[in-house]
Amino acid sequence: MSLLRIDGAVDPHVHLRGMEWSHKATFSSETAAALAGGYTAVMDMPNTPPPTVDAPGLARKMRELGEGARCDYGVWLGADPAGAPTPETMTKLARGVCGLKLYCGHTTGTLEIDRELMGAYIKVWPGPGPLGLHAEDDMIGAFIDDLARWRKRGHICHIHSAYAVSRLRRAKEDGLPITAGVTPHHLYLTERDLDALGPKAVMKPPLGTAADREALWEGLRSGVVDMVETDHAPHTWQEKTAQPPAFGVPGLDTCLPLLVTAANEGRLPLERLQALVADAPRLLLGLPAADPDTFTLIDTKARWTVSADSLKTACGWSPFEGFELTGRVVKVVLRGRAAYVDARIVLEPGFGANLYTETAGSVADLGRGREETKASHKT
Ligand code: DOR
Ligand code: ZN
């Protein structure tokens, strides 16, 4: 066995579901998938109903996530298509979340905004978290222009095309505080896989060409693309096989093993993994280095084949079924407690802590009891 240790792996981009979409998956089931995949914390996106765009939406998510989470977590606030709240409300909400997500393209949920509203949100967002962008090529340039104009910190989520990588490179050369994450599905699949995978290859942004995929790998190797994020988005098989199929694929169970496999194949130095799945997301999200008792051990030589049975995600399918991987998570320890051992989840729902507690407490009426209990787990 050859063990790689990753300290404090964080997935900055997941859609855990729960609440009104508990039929797809729950906070408990998907944080189990996170632990099985080697992650000790996840950042949940706002597009699951009720959308996380205001104090009631945030309160509901914090309450249910607090009860269900087996790993640590944070929550993204969503830009509300109905318009920005008052600056006071925005400042309060901003303190309880890891960042503000802007949906500037069509996808799952009801949060799509236009260019004008995107600009308005970028202008008023007080931080301290970053602005996260969901967009395809058309809006990425506009996002970069607005970040430069208002001097704000931004993150391009699931960067998917050679064009977007070239825009990102230029923005970085111009000195903009901008980062980007790439998903395992955009790194591993292309539009050519649609024939074989059908709805398992349908997501937003869509899969690109082989040239797009190569630009993403090259961006990752050169450091232009900063991190890997799964965009974990479970849907029931029935929803995926409906017409049209729901957008999105699960990724938490398989991301780290796919990256170790890539390293074994010489596509990426193994030493880069710590930066790609832990250090860079932590920097983006304003999280300190993980405590010494929060880590993941991966057997970098273990060979296995992804199957529906091997997944902890409630959706029970993956675009990577049948992939032969070299690299398997063997143990996860969270704040000194064994979390995942011998392919079993051993942490109960509710152990996960909100990593933005200080701030969550300041948003009035947020179901405080839960947050207070959680804070005691933190060392
Ligand atoms: O494919 C996607 N699915 N892309 C997104 O941006 C959202 C996600 C979902 O929530 O299903
Ligand atoms: Zn997403």
Please provide a written account of the structure.
This protein has 379 residues and is of the alpha/beta class. The protein is 34% helix and 18% strand. The chain is built from 14 helices and 13 strands. Helix 5 (137-150) runs parallel beside helix 6. The longest helix is centred in the N-terminal third of the chain and has 14 residues, at 55-68. The radius of gyration is 19 Å and the shape is globular. The structure holds (4S)-2,6-dioxohexahydropyrimidine-4-carboxylic acid and zinc ion (ZN). The site of zinc ion has 5 residues, from loops.
Any descriptors?
379 residues, five-stranded antiparallel β-sheet, eight-stranded parallel β-sheet, single chain, TIM Barrel, 13 strands, binds zinc ion, alpha/beta, binds (4S)-2,6-dioxohexahydropyrimidine-4-carboxylic acid
Radius of gyration: 19 Å
* CATH homologous superfamily assignment: Metal-dependent hydrolases
User: So what's the CATH class?
Assistant: Alpha Beta
Q: Return the CATH architecture.
A: Alpha-Beta Barrel
Major beta sheet, strand line-up:
2-3-4-5-6-7-8-9
